[in-house]
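Provenance and format

Records in this collection were gathered into a single text stream. Each protein contributes a sequence line and a token line. The two records reproduced below are adjacent in the stream.
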Amino acid sequence: MTDRGLAVELSDLTRVYGQVRALDGLTLQLAPGELVALLGPSGCGKTTALRILAGLDRPTSGSVSVGGRDLTKVPANKRDMGMVFQAYSLFPHMTVIDNVAFGLKLRGRDSAARRARAGDMLDLVGLNEHANRYAHQLSGGQQQRVALARALAIEPSVLLLDEPLSALDAKVRVQLREEIRRVQIEVGTTTLFVTHDQEEALSVADRVGVMNAGRLEQLAPPAELYSAPASRFVGEFVGLSNRIPAQVRDGIASLMGRDVPVLPGSASGSGHALVRPESISVVADADGPATVTTVMFLGPLSRVTCTLADGTGVVTQLASSEALRLTPGDSVRLEVAPTPVLVVA
């Protein structure tokens, strides 16, 4: 399929509802064909940003452009965007193929062209054999695939996904997020994906933007966001982090008997290092200064919680083959990997 991706730019967006500042100077660029996920807690402004891009809401100030065209005051039905929401919003009286073709009908495409395009989209999401069924005859995951096919059928310049998987059970969510990513790559449509699910955002996006109180705290590829958080909020919101007492001097943090480099933005002097569980190894040692508190089996990995001599709790993540050799009450030694850490005051 032809890459239809266009650049998207949200510039210094604010949105004020009475006393609430839902967006506070949001600036965000999406490259052509890129999938960016906005991640954050409820009320952080991520859905407001998507609605403003869609034309379903107006910014208090700031601008929206797609492909270099200013769309700030263009109504939603003139923006050429495909949208998929948490609610599937399929027409119950229409068959699957008629649902997918609906947007094409509104655009004046003839019947043969509509059915051909709708059939192609159903092929793309693996539902061609269900073309003549109705929504109530499909599972939730299948209905959301139909909604995705309908959004793509109009060949939108931008695809908007607002918590599209949150109503589905865990196994179906994983399957469908992989499907969404496969389809998005194949079609090449620039996509904004809004979610509160960290695993979802990190697994599908080219870049992830973490939002907090209407502001973009960090925008980075998933691996960078996880390993090099730019702020305390990002470090504590994305994934698990231990808060371990540390002393910082000349760009080096001393913690748990080891010196490690610090990330940009770290505090100086006394603070707490945010250390990922997998960056701490557990070594059996009868004279070790830490004690195993719990061992939680999670399949191929296990989570081991230990307590330091000063009472600090530390969560580690080990291969289960190693963790199952440990028992609550064992004395152990904890070793920190020499990877950079963010130190907060």
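Adjacent record:
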Amino acid sequence: MKFTVERDALAEAAAWVARALPSRPVIPVLAGLLLRAEEGGGLTLSCFDYEVSARMRVPAEVSEPGTALVPGRLLVEITRSLPSKPVDFGPDPEGMSMTCGEAAFTLVTLPAEEYPELPELPQLAGTADGGVFAAAIGQVTPAASRDDTLPMLTAVSLELSGETMTLAATDRYRLAVRDLDWEPAPGALDLGPVSALVPARTLADAARIMTAGKPVRIFLRHDDSASGAADADGTDGGDAMIGFETGERRLTTRLLAGEFIKYRSRFPAEFGCEAEVPAGAFTEAVRRVSLVAERGTPVQLSFAPGRVTVVAATQGQARARESLPADFTGDEPDIAFSPHYLLDGVVAAAGPDGEETAGARVRLRFTSASKPAVITQGTDGDFHYLVVPQRVLR
């Protein structure tokens, strides 16, 4: 195998594909990146660990087609350090040579014949705008649990119903839900709505390939095992999988087994208190005040006519407070939250397109200091974030 590729293109592709490499591969070959050079087809970098696969194609001048399996993270580190010059790959008695300007490396290759065959994409389910989809993923995934003892909660529930896609995630203390438009493929939903549990970390990686204005194709193979009983480790989704493809990048992952919580009923139908605050100023106030809050200490919100005061303290060390304008109605003026959970909800609600917009406002609704509150965009919008309060400071 012999080819030449631009350093920047190689570095970008290697870094993105390597994000899907397993941290503790069960067999050595799974730590490798598969390089496939095709005459007229450029260079394709890919990896697969039986759960997640990633593939990206970049332009390359191929003089001798072929395939090689090289240490993945080492390739990333080497390409990151190279000057912005063409990189030449070629055969070497010990594996593969890699030359860029005056820098030369020899990579000992792994046995490609032992590498698993990459999965093919399942049926096309439909398409969504890359920018909108990525923003929705960014709003929802922070709420997914990181506790691997409850695999179902480490996933994002992706529901497809008509021309609406709904993403939902929870760690039991907060719940984020976002609706967005998408375009289903003909016949994709003939049997009715579809629900899938997508690993949150992989979905966040998928968002990295999405660009505003460019469609993302969503491929889905969904069977009963994805919504039925799981194996002992709770992660077996059978042959159920989902894939995302845009441009020259493709990411697939197996779906998790199990049924997501019935989250729609968790949102209160009525609220006794409602506050509306400027998103940017409120976010900065919470960030500043929470600097004095030790781990597990909440920030308290105290509402008065036309104002909200944000307060936090660490006993015997420091105390902080900051006031800013707010519209408030209700008879329960105090409520407190984990600063991290509060910030995640406010920042997500403020940026319907993935970024906080100037003049954006967010709405906080609750009934008492002990019952769940809901954060939405100022106009309610398509994003809802339910969060459990903490004990009010006294």
